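Please go through the protein record below and explain what the tokens say about the fold. Record follows.
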Amino acid sequence: MEILQFLARFYGEAVINRFLLLAVAWIIWPGMMFAVGVIFESREVPLIKHQSKAFFPGDLTLGVMLVAFVSMYSHTGIAIPLASSPFWWPVIAAVMVIVGWRIHIKDAANYPWRAAYSPTKITHDVMGYFIIPLLLIGLGVPQLALLADEGMREATRIGWLTVAISITLYLTCVALDIMTYYDAEDIHARHPADWQPIWKTRNRR
């Protein structure tokens, strides 16, 4: 809660801080994926060619939504009722573990075993199927409950509009992926089975 309060204060101190928060969110995700690719797989993760649209640019919308929820919290001061009932976070986390694992198993079937459990694939699935959804749900549900209050609804109007646009853009990227044929070369480029960490490839030279 203290971190969320700090972020809310930082968000409200200056307009530029909103963009700084968004930049940090993007550095963490999807930026982390590119760092993992270089360090643990000795390669550059593809950005456009071969890449899933849902990952890029789709995952950029996740950071936008997180900042939008911080914006809402800065106006309402309401977050998940962790202080009054610590029961909620473990419940949400447990649900996300089950849901995320099922999605991972289904998605992993598209890759060879070593690719399905490569550093980039594990990072993608932990962040995309567990941590980020957990944060979005934890921050968003309390704000959703406040929409019945006219004053709160007005205070969070721009934030919810931002979230709605972000969800629309993300679902559009998912739809484009569904309509696009990706071959074995695309699959290999995203999460190769022949990955090696950078310290091993350097030792070979």
